[in-house]
Write a structure and sequence with these properties.
The protein is mostly helical. The chain is built from 9 helices and 3 strands. The radius of gyration is 17 Å and the shape is globular. Bound molecules: fe (ii) ion. Fe (ii) ion binds next to helix 2.
Length: about 240
């Protein structure tokens, strides 16, 4: 068990088993700060030159941390947010009290999305999909190159801030979607296979307004082994 696995185990063993076992909530829900910022699992500069260290640091330590802090600072307004499974809350946001619904949608959504995102990237690993992920992609697109092009185009076309996703939708079909702001695939009843953050904070320091260039480089850090595991889980 490497350091990352150990951290996953430590968090996952005591908290809600959310995305990859790292979607942080503390050991005791009664604690004042039940939400935890999960570690990146690799160094800030591990994804260089595709994503620069400063961007990773600010993105994780400031942006993601802010979502976690907002949840912890507001948990007293709706204590169930600390006890209900995260996916259950996000898949039925209308059940959240109106007074906290937008806060939960944005911050719990941001927490879920970023946790998924960190876990999907790696400095090593397979650079191209294989096995069932490759087959699934080829069943819906001409080939992997065609899929990558359409995925990146969808991300580039997402107006303003949001995410691009490859999902297994609620009809069990593989599909390419985008979500606005911190909306999640979970809210659509979909299971994410891969997903990329297209908020400017994810790329602006290095790429400025060249989102398409960031999306092209992003393929170099995708953890296809993780994508395969996500597909397996989604298909179960
Ligand atoms: Fe982000």
């Amino acid at each position: 068990m490497n350091r990352r696995d150990t951290l996953k185990f430590l968090v996952g063993a005591t908290a809600f088993a959310g995305t990859a076992g790292v979607l942080g909530r503390g050991a005791a829900f009664a604690q004042a700060k039940p939400f935890i910022l999960p570690p990146l699992g690799y160094a800030n500069d591990a994804l260089e030159p595709n994503i620069d260290a400063r961007t990773m640091q600010i993105h994780h330590d400031n942006h993601h941390a802010a979502y976690v802090n907002n949840l912890n600072n507001n948990v007293d307004k709706w204590p169930e947010m600390a006890t209900k499974p995260i996916d259950e809350i996000l898949s039925n946001l209308s059940a959240a009290p109106e007074t906290v619904r937008t806060l939960v949608r944005n911050n719990l959504g941001g927490h879920w999305n970023h946790t998924f995102f960190w876990d999907l990237m790696t400095p090593g690993g397979a650079k191209e999909p294989s096995g069932e992920v490759k087959s699934a992609i080829e069943s819906s697109w001409k080939d992997v190159a065609d899929f990558k092009e359409r995925f990146a185009a969808a991300g580039a076309a997402r107006f303003g801030s949001g995410w691009a996703w490859l999902v297994v939708n609620k009809d069990k079909k593989i599909e390419l979607i985008t979500t606005a702001n911190q909306d999640t695939p979970v809210a659509l009843g979909a299971k994410a296979i891969i997903g990329v953050d297209v908020w400017e904070h994810a790329y602006y320091l290095k790429y400025q307004n060249r989102r398409a260039e960031y999306l092209k480089a992003w393929w170099n850090v995708v953890n296809w082994d993780k994508a395969a595991a996500n597909l397996k889980k989604a298909s179960a």
